[in-house]
Amino acid sequence: QMCSKVFTSTSALAKHKLTHSDERRFSCQLCGKAFKRQDHLNGHLITHREKKPFECRADGCGKSYCDARSLRRHQDNHH
Asked: Does the keyword Zinc apply (predicted)?
């Protein structure tokens, strides 16, 4: 046993087990950064887009971010 987390499906458990591995099998073809899980690579790929999907709607701001958490952090700190 590696940790005490409990999962309702074997697929979720298998996905989580990858976080305990040192192996980073999923590499970004654009910058070479490697990840333990495919979904983490998928999230990273958004950072290479010119247009980020999460835009601040405050007047005159125009900032955009790769994920909702980053946008929320921006809004909390600047608006």
From this structure: yes
Closest CA to 76 of 65, 51, 40: 65
Q: 0.70 cut: is pTM over it?
A: no
Answer whether residue 1 is part of any domain: no
Type and span of the H or E element at 71: helix 68-78
Query: Which contiguous run of DSSP H or E holds residue 34?
Result: strand 34-35
- Residue 27 belongs to what H/E stretch? strand 26-27
Residues 13-38: pLDDT tens digits?
Answer: 998 998 898 999 999 999 999 999 99
In CATH, what number is assigned to the domain containing residue 31? 3.30.160.60
Note whether 43 and 59 are same-domain residues: no
